Structure formats: structure tokens, C-alpha cells
Amino acid sequence: MLELDFTTSGYVYMALIWAGVGLIAVVLARRQGRNPALWCVACLLAPVALFYLAGEHGGRADARDRAERDQAERDRAERAQAQAPADGDGNE
């Protein structure tokens, strides 16, 4: 899976790329007689939305893995407690 761990400079580069894409969208929309504001917003929001969705998916998978590990630990603890003698000295 793609790791979404960026440094500060990575965020700056991404912002510059997205701003450039938005400006290119404005120029192309004007040339073709389309709404430049709509295309600028669409081109700026699409990558942000994709990263958000990828992060949400990754977060859910991590949460699911944590829940499964926690459940396995609880099961082990219950089995260990059930096997332990009631009086604590091991003689019945």
C-alpha cells in the first residue's frame, strides 16, 4: 500500500503542483469557453479528495487490524485466566 507520509517540503511541492494544475485548468477553460472557476476548483479538489479517500481507507484497515489484535489478546487472557487454579497454589 502507498505510504502517505510526507515531509513539509513534500506538502509544499504538492501545493505548487496543484496550484499549477488549477492555473492550467483556468487557461484551458477560458480557451474553450467553459467556466474557469469551476474547472479550477475541480482540478484543485480532485487530488485532495483522492488523498482523503486513500487516507480513510488506510485508517479503516489499520483500525480493523488493531481491533483484531486486541480481540486476540483478550481471548488469550481469558484462556490463561480459565486455566489458572482458583486457589492460586495449583493444588486441588
Question: In words, what does this structure look like?
Answer:
By secondary structure, the protein is mostly helical. The model has no long low-confidence stretch (mean pLDDT about 75). It has one domain. α1 runs antiparallel to α2. It has 2 helices and no strands.
Order of helices and strands: HH
Strand content: under 5%
Unreliable sequence segments? none
Number of helices, where a helix is a run of at least 4 consecutive DSSP H or I residues:
2
Largest β sheet strand count, sense and barrel closure:
none
Q: How many structural domains in the coordinates? A: 1
Query: Oligomer, anyone?
Result: single chain
Alpha-beta classification: mainly alpha
Total beta strands? 0
Shape: rod-shaped
**Rounded radius of gyration (Å):** 26 Å
Fraction of helical residues: over 70%
Taking the alpha carbons of the first and last residues, their distance comes to 53 Å
Average predicted confidence as pLDDT: 76
